[in-house]
Amino acid sequence: MLEKSYEYLKQRLDNFVPDTAIILGSGLGDVINSIQDPLIIPYSDVPFFPTPTVSGHAGKFYIGKLGKHNVICLQGRFHFYEGIDVRMIYEIIRMLKQLGVRRLLVTNAAGSLRMHMPAGSIMLIADHINMSGTNPLIGVCEEPYFPDMSEAYDLDMRNSFMKIAEEERIPVFQGVYMMLTGPNYETPAEVRMLQMFNVEAVGMSTVPEVISAVQLGLKVMGISVISNLATGMDLHKPNHQEVLRQVGRATQKLSLLITKFMEKE
Ligand code: HPA
């Protein structure tokens, strides 16, 4: 499906083989500042590659060295709520694998279901619940047809990330992320339901990328930056500008953790 996009990127990358892909969530673009002399390719230059429509998602590849690794960073992700078929998300991950990628690091902005995990917190995703009502593997029909999800988020990478956080004295939570389609924020009644489901964070992305990556045999790490308490948990009403602002506060901490992680692992 993205054969022409692959051919274009392969040619632009020349002999550079990325081993890690990083997908940056809303307002989390800062991570790319740690890449040395990145090759920047706007999505719009890449034939047949889609363009994101949401503010906070620039729509550019940043390609270069980060720590020990050759990375391809996607500043700007695609969401189901943009009307993008989740199958396209699978094709993007497959194209990244074709380019050489073996590990996927995904970040997102999320609402917290826990009073003790306020805006500005960082949460490593331990597991997820796919409440999106769809699945990127529908129609893929390739082995493994029924991928195992018992350790979707690689335990070794998580342990190593938590160790780095401890060394840097940056508090990091671990928890379950639930994806709803959005694009509206939840109602207070929906939030009360999510609390009964015992999840720590809620958002509108990430799960399609992770399911795709697991089916394709990539190792995955996911990080949520908490931008707000979920609707009704305090007096604030969630809105996108506030989400970007709160995420902006945590982006430096997250960049540091990701940079240290890429130097070690
Ligand atoms: N709900 C869903 N998605 C989100 C939220 C939220 O409260 N905050 C940031 N992304």
Descriptive keywords:
alpha/beta; Rossmann fold; 5-stranded mixed barrel; 265 residues
Give a description of the structure.
With 265 residues, this protein is α/β, with parallel strands linked by helices. The chain has one domain (3-264): Rossmann fold. It is built from six helices and nine strands; from the N terminus they run αββββαββαβαβαβα. It has helices spanning 3-13, 86-98, 155-167, 188-196, 207-215, 240-264; strands at residues 20-24, 36-42, 60-66, 69-75, 103-112, 122-130, 173-179, 201-203, 219-229. A five-stranded mixed beta barrel has the order 5-8-7-6-9. It is globular. The chain starts with a helix and ends with a helix. The mean pLDDT is 93. Hypoxanthine (HPA) binds at residues 109-111, 185-186, 202-204, 227-228, 230, 238, 243. Hypoxanthine binds next to strand 5, strand 8 and strand 9.
